[in-house]
Amino acid sequence: MNVYIKSILTFNNEGEKRHVDLTDGLNVITGESKSGKSALLEIIDYCLGSSKSTIPKGEVTKFGHLFALILKFPKYHLVVARNRLDDDGKKQMYLYRTSQDIVPKELSMDLFTEENKLNLEQAKIELGREFGITVTSSTENIDAIKNEPRPSVRNMTSYMFQHQNLVASKFALFYRFEDSQKRDQTIKQFPVFAGWVDQQYYNYRLELDELIKQQKRNEKLQQSYSKSTEKIKRDLLNTFKRYYMLVGKTLDDNLSLTKLLSLRKSLPDFTRESYLSEEMEHRHGELKKQREELKQQRYDIEMSIRNLELSHGYGKNYSSNLKSLKAILNHSLHHNDSYDCPVCGQGVKVLTKKIVSLKHSKKWLVEELASVKVQGNEFHLQIHNLSMEKDKLNDEIRRLGNEISKIEEITDRWKKTKKLDNEVVYARAEIDIECKKIEEQQANLRKNDNESDVRIIELNRLIDGYNLNSYYSQAETFFKTNISRVIEKVDFEEEFRPADMNFLLDTFDLYHHDKESKSRVYLSEMGSGANWLACHVSLFLSFLHFFALQEKSALPSILFLDQPSQVYFPEKIFVNAKEKSNDVQKVEQIYKTILEEIELIKETTQFKPQVIVTDHVGELDIEGYKFEDYLRKNWRGNDNKFI
């Protein structure tokens, strides 16, 4: 997105201010240590809604009562400001939008009124909207314990900031990634910041997830229904049989569920002539006979279980006795196969024979113990299987008992009233109710499946229309090409040239593909601070380039590098170009690479992204560029500092 920081400001209680004015393109702030350079990045971070203030304690925090940024958009300015954390800054921010030009040196604290004050969370939402974030929720899982947090300007900062302790780190690439939750959010929200997706995309994903899970639930219902079809059919068959019994007709036991449902519409009518009283009695007797047979089967199973339990008890006692014998044998058994007299040294045949016999007995004992253990396991399995059969018989006996009770109730009522017509009407109504219930279940399952299938196909089509896979593929190709191109310009070890850098968008890992060993060399596996710096600079210049190219990107085209030259001059507080060492030339090459990348981006996008560099370099001789054209502040000498 075409936006840059026009000025970084801080006000004290009296309204006195300090400010650093910036432009698009490259902005360099240089100076001695403790001049306030590194505070600038922390002020920007604080004004972009950080939950805590990391502005260095000292002169800046003593002076600073309110911190502010002026953001320049193509058609308007946005002022973002925040009081010190301990002075209402923890909960409040100021946002002021105007189409008029804002001159930093003319800006006063009069602007920061109650009218422009928002609570911190709302201010971050509004700031995100200014940058073009339209997504309010990136949740894709309907069963998520809590919704995914909305994409925020806070996650954008991971692409924008390279702190002093990060810019050449071998272990970390991104700001805020030490928090795994924030890391995962930033990676997941990459398509949002790139402008590839909108809220509707996540709505589709959420609905699709819900439908797929509903479909799986329906499949389980279908399976459950299919498994219970036999029971449903049997219960319905019994209902039909009661009716047929009342009207004096017989019913085929082998009718399918479908046939039974269709039979409902053509039930035989009741007539006095067709009724046979013996039918009810016959049905009642048949059911009682079936129940008695099942009770006998249950009794046989119960006796088998009891016998097995008794046998298992005997086996346990037998095993215990065998173990005792084994312990005695182990204690008393001679270790040799023969026994010699301790006095004369001659072999004693009788004792030798007993030793051999005892050893054979021990072998048998060990084998018998193993056999008893196996048989014990078999007892458990047989008892379990018989218990399962007994449970099934109990269910069937219970069902037959219910059928018998219903017939007896009908018989009792008929004997009292002598009105069989009412019983027939009731039995017919019972058939209607059960058939309708089954038909509705079947219809609902079919309807849900059909409707879900159609909508799932439609949602997949709508989601595919966002072409995310294609975007990701193109993006990874871009990063591979661009990072490799940029890193060749800076101080990158010859061992890794020609560079084949790859950035994985699903994990945010950066690695060099070694063609010789056909292996990946990750950042942490590369030696030398120069290599680490080269990786950071090339990756984040590529991010700057990539997001600038995305037509609907919500990410500001801003990159802040804090003291990149520290790799070459860790102890120096001032580096002068006159000390024309090889290291100075390498630093100059970094700045030249930054400027060339800015120009390349402008050629394609028609605007310059902003790169802010705080460093301790002095005058540099950058081929094709004048260093002083990009120098915004040079804080050296007495009283020459930010505060």
Automatic annotation (TrEMBL):
It comes from the Bacteria. Keywords: Coiled coil. Residues 3-237 form the Rad50/SbcC-type AAA domain. One of its GO terms (molecular function) is ATP hydrolysis activity. One of its GO terms (biological process) is double-strand break repair. InterPro entries: DUF3732 (IPR022205), P-loop_NTPase (IPR027417), Rad50/SbcC_AAA (IPR038729). Residues 383-448 form a coiled coil. Gene3D superfamilies: P-loop containing nucleotide triphosphate hydrolases (3.40.50.300). The keyword Cell inner membrane does not apply. Heterodimer of SbcC and SbcD. Belongs to the SMC family. SbcC subfamily. This is Nuclease SbcCD subunit C. It comes from Brevibacillus fortis. The lineage of its organism: Bacteria, Bacillati, Bacillota, Bacilli, Bacillales.
